[in-house]
Amino acid sequence: MTESTKIEFRYRRVSEIEDITDLVEVLFPGNRNQQHAAARVLLALKASSEPMPSMSHLEREHGVSRRTLQRTRAKLARLGLIEHVSFLNARYGGQHGWKLSSRMSTALRQMADRIDGWRRDTRPERTEKDERPVG
User: Fold this and answer.
1) Which of 43, 2, 8, 47 is nearest to 25 (CA)?
2) Number of domains in the chain
């Protein structure tokens, strides 16, 4: 039986994440090659103080195929863990490349805040609106 490759976002699984290995296992279940590539990408970006223009050195140094690296990088960018910085971005003074991003963590905090706000909101009009889709 093959292992599922869909991200399983269970609250108990999330609370067990302690390091980069656990994180990439959650984000890339069932694909050891992409787990390895994601760990290498995230660790390289964490160690770099400036945007990394290319990740081709990861292919050579760690034996990651170009296709695996590209697919992994695309998924990490879609999730908001990494982002590409343009040379037009004044904040980085003409530098361009990939860097760690705070988009995913910001989005998860916002979602948690919205869930908490919804749980506390007991106004009648809010309850009425919540009941509409199931009514």
Assistant:
1) 8
2) 2
